Amino acid sequence: MSASNGITRRTIEVPAHGAHAAATLVAHTAGRGPVALLLHGYPLDHRMWLEVLRSPLAARRTLVALDQRGHGHSPAPGDAVHSMERFAADAAAVLDAFGAADADVVGLSMGGYVAFALAAAFPQRVRSLVLTNTRAGADGEQARAGRDAAIRTVLEHGRAAIAQAMLGKLLAKDADAVLAARVRTMIEDTPVETIVADLRGLRDRPDRTSLLPQLAMPTLAIAGEHDPITPPAELQAIAAAVPGARCVVVPGAAHLVPMEQPAAFERELAAFWA
Predict the structure, then answer these.
(1) Which pLDDT does position 17 carry in this prediction?
(2) What is the 3-state secondary structure (H, E, C) of 117-141?
């Protein structure tokens, strides 16, 4: 365990379970109180949550930003097979390591798909649910073809090509150069085999629309006003289908609300967790 700028890095050994290979996972934590589990998007890592980890939210929650297998400081296991269900089982193992019976779960994009899988398999572990820049539906034919094309791109041209293709969709058009450089660095730091495994897992993930009416935990959906990947209508549909849920659309943001508009994102979490 190591610490830097108030953020502690913790290594967790996850044994093999079922068809899932053993893994070494790294979680970055700050704060005190009940656990809030932060699940990053593709092909990013815990660094997308740095503003949240350093925010006043740490006064009311133990914030845990997990690096999924092959992302950030978590090495890729030898089999390089990813699924939202595997990531969810890993998330449950991380909660076990923190001695947390349940957690406030926050998932962005791919992290939202993992949050759905966690709520489906371990509903008792999800105290509340925040879904941001994500969707409940599975990939359609066009989206699946796009995942396959992205696999070919990264295998033939490398991570820089994926970063270049994604930046214009992840960030609003007026995003500053420093933020764009941070996102580019995260993408280019992600191993090619991890990007390929993520894309296959995203392509093959199940439709979770039928799960929505069954979600009994408090739920908040957060959309970016200018998100071309998961437009506000996707999050509004989630909120309409989950009993008691509501949706917030954050002005000036695209697909990475916590990084683009951190103050607004943190205000919404603070109000939701009050």
Answers:
(1) 74
(2) HHHHHCHHHEEEEEEECCCCCCCCH
Contact of 134 with 202, CB cutoff 8 Å: no
The DSSP result for 55-81, as a single string, is SGGGGTSEEEEEE-TTSTTSPPPTT--
Provide mean pLDDT across the span 9-23. Answer: 87
| Nearest alpha-carbon partner for 46 in 23, 22, 24, 71 | 71
Q: Is the pLDDT of residue 86 over 60?
A: yes
How does DSSP classify residue 274?
-
Cβ contacts of residue 208 below 8 Å, gap of 6+?
A: 113, 116, 117, 120, 136, 137, 138
Look at the chain and report how many structural domains it folds into.
1
* Residue 37 belongs to domain spanning: 2-273
Task: State in Å, rounded, how far the first CA of the chain is from the last one.
Answer: 30
- In CATH, what number is assigned to the domain containing residue 103? 3.40.50.1820
